[in-house]
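Can you give me the bound-state structure? Components:
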Amino acid sequence: MTVVELKGVSRKYGNIVALDCLDLVVEKGEFLTLLGPSGSGKTTLLNIIAGMTPPSSGRVEIDGRDVTDMPTRQRGLGMVFQNYALMPHMTVFDNIAFPLRVRRVREQEIRIRVAEVLDIVNLRDLGGRKPRELSGGQQQRVAIARCLVYKPSLILMDEPLGALDKKLREQLQLEIKRLHSDLGVTVVYVTHDQEEALTLSDRICLMNTGRIEQLGTPHELYFAPETVFGAQFLGESNVLTATVSESSSEETVLRCSVGTIRAPTTSVATGAEVTIVVRPENIRRLAPGECIGNELSGELIDTTFVGGVTRYYVRPDNGSVLVLKELTNRTAWAAGSGKVRIGWSAEHTLVIQNIAGR
Amino acid sequence: MSLGFIVPLGFIFFRSFTIDGVFTLEGFRSLLTSPLFVRVFWTTLEISLIASIVALAVGYPVALHISRQSERVRSLYLIMVLLPFWTSILVKSYAFTVILGDAGLINTALRALRLPQFEMIFNRFGVLAASTNFLVPFAVFPILANLLAQDPNLGKAAEVMGAGPLRIFWRITFPLSGSGVLAGFILTFVLSLGLFATPALLGGRHDMMMANLIDFYTRDTLNWNAASAIAVILLFTSAVLLLLLNRVRGTEKFA
Amino acid sequence: MNSPARKLNLGAIGKPVHWRFPLTGIMAWSAFAFLLLPSLIIIPISFGNKNQIVFPPTAFHWDLYYLFFTTSTWIAATTQSAKVALLSTAIALTLGTLAAYGIERSRLRGKQLLLVVLLSPLLIPGVVTALGLYSYFAVIGLSGSTTALVMGHTVFLCPFVIVTVSAGIKELDGSIETAASVMGAGRFKIFTAVVLPQLRPSLVSAGLFSFLMSFDELVISWFISGAQTTTLPVKMYSSVQTETSPILAAISTMLTILSVIICLGAEGARNLRKKAVAADS
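Here's the bound-state model for the whole set.
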C-alpha cells in the first residue's frame, strides 16, 4: 500500500530550482532515506510532504488522498526535528500528551498511552522531568515518543541525530531501526550521512541538485551505482574515463589512459565514452607474476595507516593516482618502495554510462 | 566620569538624612505621615501599574505581528515603533492635550455629531492615555526580543501534530514569552514611576506623581530635605525592580 | 510487526480541533495608529489658525512658524538647546567611547559592577538624577549656567553612548587588534587606526541619538537651567499652560521632523554598515 506519492513535484525559489519535477512513492511500513549533500533538495522535499513548503507544481498524495492544498496540521503526520523541538515549558509527559490533547483524547486515556510510549522508548520514570533536565539522546527519544503516541501514518525525520555525538548517534540508529521494525511505522528520513542511510534504510533516495540521482536498496546503491555522483557519494571510488573497445556476451573491454580494462558485460555500444569506477577496497596488491583480470604497474607514492585499514596511493605509469584500501597486515608496503603492481578482477569494474547533462 | 553621577546621588542621600547638616530621619518620618505624600505615592503606583499593564496589552500584539514578518518587512514595522519611541515626550503629551482637551479633537467631533462630550484631560484618563502611549515601545522591545528568540521549530512541530494557530499561541508562544512580558512590565513600570511631564500636562490636582512632588518641594516650598527623601524612596523602589529585571533576564536563557 | 504495536493498541485517534484567529494584525495596526497619530495630528494644526486650534484646519498658513522664528525668546531657547546638545554630545561621545572600549577590552574583576554603575542613569528616574545635579551645582555655585547644563546632559548621555558603542565593539573581531599589536602597533595607535574606523557606524548612530536625546531633554534642564539659559523643552513645558496660541503645534511639528530625520540618518548609517559587510564577504 502506498503512503506517500509525489507526482511531478517541483519547487523554485526565484530562478533557483530546489526540486526538479520529481516522482516518488513511499510504501507502507517502509524506511526511506533521502540522502544527499546540503542543497540537494532533500529538506525541501521533506517540507513539501509535511506541507510547510508548497510545491511550485505537481501533486502530493498521502494515503491516496491529494493533500497538495491541505495545511500541515490536517495531514496527520509525525515529525522529528534535529533540535528535538520539545516545548521547554512542558514536562516530558505534557510534551507527549500534546498531540493527544489536540485531538481531544480523554485525560484517562492520555495517561495510558503516554505511559505506553514512554515504556517503548525506555524513559519510563522521566515523565515529570522538563526537557532541559534530559540528555540530548533522551530528548530525542521523547521527540520520537511524541510522534509514536498518535500513530501517524507517516513519520518524517529531519536529520534527527545530527546534534548528537558519534557514539550516541550509532546507539540511537539501532534504536530507531528497532522501533521501525517492531512498530511497522512508515518513515521518511533525511540525512547527509551515508553510513546512517546505509544502516537504517529499506530504500535510499539519493538526491543531488534537486533531482533523484538513484533510488534503490542500500545494496543497489553501493554495488551498482548508476551515476558517478552516486559512486562517489556512497563509499569511496576511483574514477577513470574510458572508451568501449570491445563488447561481447562474456565481457566488455575498455581502453583508457592506464591501459586496457576488463569489465563484466554491459549494454554499452562499442566506441562509447564511459566512466569506470573501482572501489578502493576491491583493488589488491599483486605479487610478481600474479594475474587477476586487470593488472597495472605504477609507482607507490604514499601509504597511510588508519588503524585497521591501510591505504596505498599508486600512480600508474600513465594516469592519475589510484587509491587502494586493505585491512592492515604485516606485509604492508613501505613508502618509497618504488614500482609496484596492483590489480582487480573484471567483475569489480563498474561501467557507468555518461548521460547528457549529468 | 561615573563620579559625575555618583556625586549628585551622594548629595541626595546626604540631604535626605540631614537638615542644616545635622543627621536626622525627620525627612522620612514627616513624609510618611504627610497625607500629601502618601496620596501621591499611591497615585504613582496606581498610574504606573495601570499604564504598564495597558501598554503590555497594546504592545504584545504589535510584537507578535512584527515577529511573524520576514526580515525586510520587520525592519519597516520596527520604524513605526522606533519613530514614536524617539519623539519627544513633551510633543506627545502636548499632542494628547490637543486631542483630548475640552476644545480638543475628540470632543469637537462629538459635539459636531451632537453626542455627549467627555472630560478627558486634567484627570486620570488623560494621564493614563498619554503614559500608555509613551510606554508601548518599551513594552514591545523585550517581548519582541523574546518572540524572535523562540525556536521556530516548536510551532512547526505543533503544527505537524495537528495544533491550530490559536492553540499554538496559547499553549506554546504565550507561555514561552512569559519572561519577555515580565521584563517589559518591570521596564515600563520603572519608567512610569518617574513620569514628570505627562502628569503635569494632562493630570489634574489628584494625579500628581512623585516626580512632580519632588519638583513641588524643590521649587515651591524649598524643602530640599523632603524632596531628597522622596528621590531616595523613588531610587530605592526603582533599583529593587531593576535588580529583579536583571534576574528575569538571567533566567531567560532556558527558553 | 510484533508485540509492542499490538500492546500500544493505537488506532486512528480522531481529528485535530482548532479555530482561526486573524486578529493579531488588526490589533497591531490599531496600536500603530495609537502610537503615530498623536504626533501626526499636530502637523495639520501647525499650519492652521494662529489664535486657536481648529480641526480640521480651515486654511493653510505659515503664521505659527513665522511667529516662532520672529520671537526672540523662542529662538534663544532653541539656540541654547542646540548649543547644549552639541557640546554634551561631543563630550559624552568621547568619554563614553573610551569607557566602552576600556570596559569591553579589559578583564577587570569589577567589570560587571562598574557597568551597572555606569548604566544606571539610563533607567533610574530622570528626576532623581535631576535633583542630585541640582543640589550639587547649587553647592559648587554653577546653578543655572550653561556649563551646568552641559555637564548634566553629559551625565545623562554617557550611559547611552556606552551601551551603543559597546554593542558595536562586541561585533568587532578582536583578533584584528591582536594582529595589529603583533605587527608592533601601540595601544593608542590600535585605538585610533584600527578600532575607531571600524566603529564609525556605531559612533554616528550614538552621536545622532545623543543629540536628539539632549535636544528633547526636559527634566534635568527644568531643574538646573536658569532664566538666561532656558532650553527649548523647558520653555515649551512652562508655556503649555500659559500660551494661548497654538505655536507649540509648530514647534512640535519641527521636533517630530527632527526625530524623523535623525531616525532615518541612523537607519542610513546602519544600512551603510550592512552594505560594507556584504561587500567584504
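A couple of observations. Helices of chain A lie at 42-50, 92-102, 107-120, 136-148, 166-183, 194-200, 218-223, 228-233. The first helix of chain A runs from residue 42 to 50.
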